Amino acid sequence: MFAPTCQVQRFEQDVRLLLKLKHPNIVQFIDAAIEGERPYLAMELIDGGSLATRLASGTAFTPAGSAHLIRKLAEAVQYAHDQHVIHRDIKPGNVLLDATVEPQLIDFGLARDLTVAAVTRSGEMLGTPLYMAPEQPRRSLTPQRSSNHFAGFAATEPLRADHDVNATSTHLSWRHSRSSPINR
Predict the structure, then answer these.
(1) Which of 69, 70, 76 is CA-nearest to residue 107?
(2) Is 89 one of the annotated active-site residues of the chain?
(3) How many angstroms separate the CA atoms of 45 and 158, rounded?
């Protein structure tokens, strides 16, 4: 059931967060309501499928096409950061491609608005393990750097030779966690 006050407050916080985001590469929020005990969000329709679906189908991206996706996704992430919003779950399944293969970042359900008190409990990890920065479990990254890692890792999948759509998330997460972080 949706009725508990904390869930209603979280839903209202999510709506306020979505209202902040007006960018050509972030799916546009249209409306929200609660009908009975069911909350809903109405979002812009993007009819080209997800990047994850395209990768799983074997769709090949040229280096120029991949660079375009990476640039547009990076612009969307930077815009969200400029609005004090950290997505926290950027992955190919959360990138829709329209009919012209223009990427649209979706699913801000785990996002954090840095201007609002955190609702994540201490020690709780959010996101998809495969796309988390290796340092994230140690809490040694700022939210922005962690989000940048999500975006970079997810956006470069079309270019990576090790993309394996049949591998389990656990296997890929383990392989990813074994890689060395880049220190700057």
Answers:
(1) 76
(2) yes
(3) 24
132 pLDDT band, cuts 50/70/90, is low
CA distance 49 to 125: 28
Residue-wise pLDDT tens digits, 83-131: 999 888 888 999 999 999 999 999 888 888 888 876 555 555 555 666 5
Give me the count of residues in the chain. Answer: 184
Beta bridge partners of 165: none
The domains of the chain, with CATH numbers, are: 47-177 (1.10.510.10)
Contacts of residue 5, Cβ cutoff 8 Å, sequence gap at least 6:
none
Residues 82, 89, 98, 113: which is the catalytic one?
Answer: 89
Considering Cα of 127, then 132, then 138, then 143, what sign does the dihedral take?
negative
H-run or E-run covering 7 = helix 5-20
DSSP 147-182: HHHHHHHHHTGGG-TT--TTS-HHHHHHHHHTSPPP
| Other CB atoms within 10 A of residue 4 CB | 9
